[in-house]
Amino acid sequence: MKMLGATMSRISHFPLPAEVLDYLDEVGILSISELPIWGKSELVDARSKVAADWLERLIDTQFNHPSIIGWSVGNEIGRYDRNPGAREYVRTAITRAKALDPSRFAVYATNTAGNQQDDPIAFADLITMNAYGDLAAAVEKTRALHPGKPIFLTEYGGGGELDSEDPNQAKDTGDAFLNQLRGKPYVIGGSRWTLNDYRSDWAGWPFSPPTGPSQNRSWGILTSDRRPKRSYFSYRAAHAPVAKMALQRRGADWSITLAPAASTICPLMRCGDTGSCGACWTRRATRSTPA
Description:
By secondary structure, the protein is an alpha/beta fold. The chain is built from seven helices and eleven strands. It has helices spanning 18-27, 49-62, 86-100, 135-145, 175-181, 230-238, 262-265; strands at 31-34, 68-75, 105-110, 127-132, 151-157, 187-192, 198-199, 216-217, 244-250, 253-259, 283-288. The chain has a six-stranded parallel sheet with strand order 1-2-3-4-5-6. The chain has a three-stranded antiparallel sheet with strand order 9-10-11, with no helix packed on it. Strands 7-8 form a two-stranded antiparallel ribbon. Helix 2 runs parallel beside helix 3. It starts with 17 loop residues before the first helix and ends with a strand. The model is unreliable at 263-270 and 272-291 (pLDDT under 50).
């Protein structure tokens, strides 16, 4: 992930062991810690003592980890036909999280904010949303219904056929997704589903392809044994901090010029890659050598 240029990972939908958080602290990878409440659940209820206890214990045990940047009170729980009490649950849970830890943001991961004007995301500090397929349409619909808050994609991907498990046959590229998000200053980042292929017995739904005979869900940009696919290299290129480096010598002086990739330093290209927004830079360092 560090070689990829990644700075954040949404690692799981449940609290992580202390050893994992210690490692994230050490290597500088940020994460949002999340309660294990997903989809239809009896815990999506403002009166649930279990959910309240889980949240308090989560924040109490992970508070001192600098890698944790925010708390999520659930994942994809906003459908009112499945969880009638979702709005009040999210409101009270986020209020409780902010009271326990005012220094971090509190959210829930939504997959319904683009279709519900009264979505519980109204109570979150920012919009953390899951989207697959047409990402541009998804974020634009969500923005139209919920203006004024930045959007972070807590999950995104193709949503169609799984990519090949063979690195030489994989067709997915990062640019197919990143290009849909560039030029939208309200989109502040995203977490790709997933870094690597993973074992699963998930049978698949009508909108989710079935798991193959290998039992691997091949959404990843790495194989299950961490071999890079083509998409890995496109993501690495998109996040490379330097577009070119020039070294010149004039007499006894050396000049080093670093020119950043504007679409990397400013991935959303607010200025259209012109540099007019001031986010792009060039640094020159001159060192004299002995005559």
